[in-house]
Structure prediction request, 383 residues.
Amino acid sequence: MRGRVDTQATMFAYVDLETRVSQNHPLRRIKVLADTALAGMDRELTAIYEPMGRHSIPPEQLLKASLLQIIYGIRSERQLVERIDDSMTFRWFLDLGLDGGVWVPTVYSHNRDRLLTTEVARQFLSAIVEQARQKGFVSNEHFSVDGTLLQAWASIKSYEKKPEESKPGDDPPSGAPPVASTPKDEVSNSPKGKDVIRDFRGEKFANATHRSKTDPDARLARKSDNTATKPSYLGNALMENRSGLVVQGEVRLACSDGGETGAALAMIDREEGDHQITLAADKGYDTKDFVECLKDMATTPHVAQNKTAHRGSSVPDEIAKTPEYTVSIRCRKRIEQVFGWVKLAGCLRQVKIRGKKAVDALFVLALSAYNLVPMNNLMAVKA
Prediction:
């Protein structure tokens, strides 16, 4: 007998979101990890808010919603809110009832931007890494470091000359300074003069003399001589070699602010303990000052030797010939997977926020989201 569609609405219905999510769903383990990390941050999260006033969106829901946005590659807050409204899985992950109202996108963005600071993001990353240590997934002895350019939410057309009181040495570039060219501006017939046309042929400009009106913290940078110069930030990550999980991360100004080597030393310094560790890195870190600083910090430099340099490599051959060095160099390549995931899956190839502090917080949170994915797989294998 043919079945008929029942279009009559039921007067009462009870739906348990817990039963609607598969027991094998990958978000189940991720939810446990995230909830455990947030439970340990309760005091820090409470200190951010005033004791009186209108209730905000719960910070736990804000952070977990940001994790969903990164893990699922949702490009905008408006799309994220629509997915939360439609998906029972997302509602279950956020502890948001089926009848619970979903936030207005602009309200969500405002609350998230106020909550998501560098300190909160780093505390969350540390809490995730601590759980990985307790489960035996990471060690505290062997690490790799690298950096990548994150395109800023600004256009090259937004660059203008700095005020005369700004000295050219404010932002000294490291290496060859990226340059672009800008000619005279030709304003269109628009009544408000909004359409500014530039052909970028003529006058050269660089970080020392020009600044973006849209994002003053962005710096002109390029990956190599064969790539385009774009407003960028420099994202840095410190990875543990055993499991490929990220233990530290930070964003610095591109072509300044100490660069990749300065960020690497800062992240190593934040690692607890005074025991001997190893640090793997590519040829770009093969400098005398960096290698000497690592030795002073009880760190064995497993840096790829740059034998093409006229000065020769700063890494001693005694270290480069050891089997541990060979293993570290092989494991170092896994950090490129981290940056690839953050940029492609996490949609951070070009950040959609402005300012170094905001970009730093978002990048560190994206590293936390990356850690949750392999940790879910490791927990499944261990189970």
